[in-house]
Amino acid sequence: MTQTHRLQQGGRIDRSRSLSFTFNGKTYRGHDGDTLASALLANGIDIVNRSFKYSRPRGIVAAGAEEPNAIVQLGKTEAGQVPNVRATQQGLYDGLTARSTNGWPNVQRDMMSWVGKLGGSFMPPGFYYKTFMAPASMWMTYEKYIRKGAGLGRAPSENDPDIYDHLNQFCDVLVIGAGPAGLAAALCAANSGARVILCDEQEEMGGSLLDSRELLDSAPAGQWVASTLKTLAGMDNVTLLPRTTANGYHDHNFVTLHERRTEHLADTAPKVKNRRQVRARLHRVRASQVVLATGAHERPLVYANNDVPGNLLAGAVSNYIRRYAVVPGNKLVLSTSNDHAYRAALDWSEAGREVVAIVDARANPEGDLIKEAKAKGIRVITGSAVIEAKGANRVTGARVAKVDLERFAVSGQVEELACDTIATSGGYSPVVHLASHIGVRPTWRDDLLGFVPGEVKGMHPVGGAKGVYTLVDVLADGAQLGAEATRASGIESVTELALPQVEARQEAPACALYQVPHEKSTLRAPKQFVDLQNDVTAAGIEVATREGFESIEHVKRYTALGFGTDQGKLGNINGMAIAARMLKRSIPEVGTTVFRPNYTPITFGAIVGRHARELFDPERYTAMHQWHVENGAEFEDVGQWKRPWYFPRKVNGKWETMDEAVSRESLAVRTGVGILDASTLGKIDIQGPDAREFLGRVYTNKWAKLAPGRVRYGLMCKDDGMLMDDGTTSCLGENHFLMTTTTGGAAAVMEWLELWHQTEWPELQVYFTSVTDHWATMTVTGPDARKLLSEITDVDLDKEQFKFMDWRDGKVADVPARVFRISFTGELAYEINVQANYALHVWKTLFKHGEKYDLTPYGTETMHVLRAEKGLIIAGQDTDGSVTPEDLGMFWAIGYDKPYSWLGKRALTRPDTARKDRKQFVGLRPVDPKVVLEEGAHVVVDKDQPIPMDMLGHVTSSYYSPNLESGFALAVIKGGRERMGEKLYVPMPDGQAHEVEVVSPVFIDPKGERQHV
Fold this sequence. Notes:
The chain has 1013 residues and is α+β, with helices and mostly antiparallel strands. Strand 41 (723-733) and strand 42 (736-741) form a beta hairpin. Helix 18 (658-671) packs across helix 23 (860-869).
């Protein structure tokens, strides 16, 4: 098809490159430099979608991120599907395939539109809440059809073939927005030696200068843009990021930038040298200072039928004409409340199209642009506004009338003007979204008729973002704030920027016009849309206020104003103004809604980056992993670690089962010597003058007197008094400790320590370093452990010189090592820590010397059996977030008289935690020794009680012990310590009930003689 609305010359497109694209199954052509939106307009496409609620025909309204209607589904293949892409932000490429997200059987003839036409008046705000509440059982059915009719895009059903990545960056000055203010600020900062990142969401940098009528140094504005960008690109201290949206602003000037690296090239990222390129990148930027040069969004006027295709923003009309050489119609009516919108009429006229009239709401507007329009013979109607658009699938006319803004009424006769395009402008709203992301409320300014960003430390709003609109002032403001940001970053010597000469224009003040009155009341007039994306009307907002919703946040939720991807870019101010009028308040009294990240939608791929597929949850291996593989270990996942589960052997031509292997390994440890790879235990190096004090606050027991060379077991509670982790901590020096944690709890404990240090006790001088990967750990345990280790170490292992809960420095297999005499089996045991790179050598040396002792490797399953026989807990298995140290019977590990209250101490004084019938840690011995109870099984008193049975507690750990020649279990039972010797029952789903005896949780060596030998 021919591009019927394309001018023969002008614009910034490359006419030498013609591109083919498909929209709703039809093929069209555009040019390199087009967006999908400009290409659709060039081809005369009026209807691009159907509306969210009423299925009304919708056309393109804007030219940037504020576009509410042209939300499309991209993708030629199933794997390349991308939902809800703004056509105004999608660069055109050859072969692009797009579809409307709503409309059945097609967007031109949507059957759902009859629902909107016939039933629209029966779908006020809150319609869904009021209509589909009953019966509750039908909600899932309702939701299915509501969702289907809502017009949202769909996610692909095949895996995404593309890759995405993250990049962490730091800069002195981050400039968000590369319009005139942003370019001036970036150039000033860069010339002064600052490290600068300049990002802009558009396909090319330049902002409003790309369609400006004004001259800089007597030359087209584009020339200054090109020259400035060339200068910045040639500087080593500058990073330019076009097609990059600042989508989230967080504390301490941490900003996330979404860079669309190859989305303008193809459905999926192209390959270079057979390697797929990155489709999108998320930059995680820590900036010393941020210059917010995000500009302002033009506000549309709210009038009857303002959603009919052919209703556009005035600025968008100029943008399409001057930047893309596209005139979206033939006969224009412009309705405005300010001078700047006159550009649209002038550009339209210079493009050779008819300007039917400019309708200005002000009584006597005066300004250079107004004079220029009148000099061209364009009719200017003052004190008036377009009150209604005519037409169904395209504008056919505009009804114009005098309006009384004070009385909110039509005050004159209505004149109908024949036209196919209506451009409107109700003023400008500074883009305050990013500044609001961290909770700072914007501030209303009556002189601007808009909100400006609130004060944020390290952030400098410039230009349109703070309500400075004339080009000469915008450039000066950008240079000034760029210099201030540079100085604030620590650079004292700032180079003054020579700004281009710009002819100052005289502009008259704008008037406050948001909703245009109609001859009929708002509730009876044709629909006047405030939020085009969510089908929110002025009548809907009036109804919400009449129903008692006074908070703007409640109005938002009741009507959907500013919901979804739109985030109120076009409609929020108008909606607030309507609510303010109804509530008889001012706009600042009504306030604004909360803006949240993301500023515009980004793909999940960009959020995830490389943390997908095999990198989503990386597998971690110990230094001895390959040895385990070669020796037939079966593995289990513990956190991210691959840990040996058990080591099956071939016996009489058959491989051992897990039970057989675990029995063999358990007996070997109890009667000879075994070895465990315990490298996965969390290890945190803690140093600083206040290290002891800190440990005393996070552990339940005392640490003030722990001497270097000694080790202590500790319990760590949440602030609710419930156990979160346990482990040993060794004193390496007076102010130096090594804490061990459970494998799965290492990251959580590290985060917990940092949280309390940084937020509650920052005055303490203490530092934490995770060293889990630095140190490999080998546990040698069993009666022959001392004999074996003595052959390869220079550490004195004499039981009097090296006692239980001591540690020593020395060498093992000629490798520097820390040897800890601690035990998780109840046997004589040594934990050997060596630098991980040498661990395999030490491991193999132990096996070489251990051959005579029949050294047996054992895995986590045997470890569980051995520790359970000794009544030793595993946090997260024998505890579940509702168990206190007292419930575990570990009163010996609780320092009630410590001078500083430790975390959880106060919670243990609550009546609930002092109840005698709390679940307490005990052992269970099945009456039938062959029975191995199911973990998680309930424990009851009466096995014959009908369901639901009264539960006393549950089994936490259960195993078969070859050492006891019986099954045994650990459990938490209500009042368990008072029930010793009592017989209880563990019912099974099949109807059986196993009889058990409540016993001590310590099944082997209750006096601890073996580990002290």
